[in-house]
Amino acid sequence: MNQKPVWIVGAGPGAPDLLTLRAARLVEQAEVLVWTDSLINPQIAALAPEGCEQVRTSTLTLEQVMEVVLDRARAGKTVVRLHDGDPCLYGAIAEQICRLADAGIGVEVVPGLSAYQATASALQSELTIPGLVQTIVLSRAGGRTGVPAREALERLAALRASLCLYLSARHVEEVQTELLRHYPADTPVAIGYRVSWPDEWIKVVPLADMARVSQERQLIRTTLYVVSPALAAPAEARSRLYSASHNHLFRGGVS
């Protein structure tokens, strides 16, 4: 393997100060920055040093991107492949890593904060409420590329968990129709557009209004839906972990 790995780095949801320290350090040290300019805040790319070669990928195919990455890596450059959000979610990194491995070039992946986390934080909400919901599902509508049949939206919605849907705004009518077969119509849905960017827009609406509000805002991309009963959790909901009656390794309980 090449001694200098290619770094696949998560840029987080948008705000530069939501970069991890490791991600920021790598961008600041990059000799070649290959970044998704259609989705990443330019202020993050601007952290790269003077003289860094910056390659924007919005108009490139994966093959063209990898041609650049492989060429610069073989030349011994410090290459940072910067992805929006967390690269392990809908980042196509498996294909990139395979091509790098075939070329004998090592890879290091740096996680990034995901939009669902930034959305919950902006709403000051917890998505796992004791006795109400304890599961978070990350998925998307089928769309042109489809999803495996076992992961069809009807199966995921049947859980009535905290369901976070990426890449689904173009199909919001179909999504709402399917969700209403499983969730009550008044289930809260957080609609997050460009979360943590300066023009961020987040609104919580009943599930029955999800499609209408999305269409009124003309949302077709960079939109996340968080469908969850946790967004309307009762005030008395409480975790047992911090209850005085609950003992564990570090604290005795009160009977």
UniProtKB/TrEMBL annotation:
Keywords: Cobalamin biosynthesis, Methyltransferase, S-adenosyl-L-methionine, Transferase
Protein's GO biological process: cobalamin biosynthetic process; methylation
NCBIfam families (UniProt xref): cobM_cbiF
Family statement: Belongs to the precorrin methyltransferase family.
Name by which UniProt lists this protein: Precorrin-4 C(11)-methyltransferase
Pfam family, any one: TP_methylase
Residues covered by the Tetrapyrrole methylase domain: 6-210
Organism: Cyanobium usitatum str. Tous
UniProt-listed SUPFAM superfamilies: Tetrapyrrole methylase (SSF53790)
Associated pathway: Cofactor biosynthesis; adenosylcobalamin biosynthesis
Keyword Aminoacyl-tRNA synthetase among record annotations: no
GO terms assigned for molecular function: precorrin-4 C11-methyltransferase activity
Domain of life: Bacteria
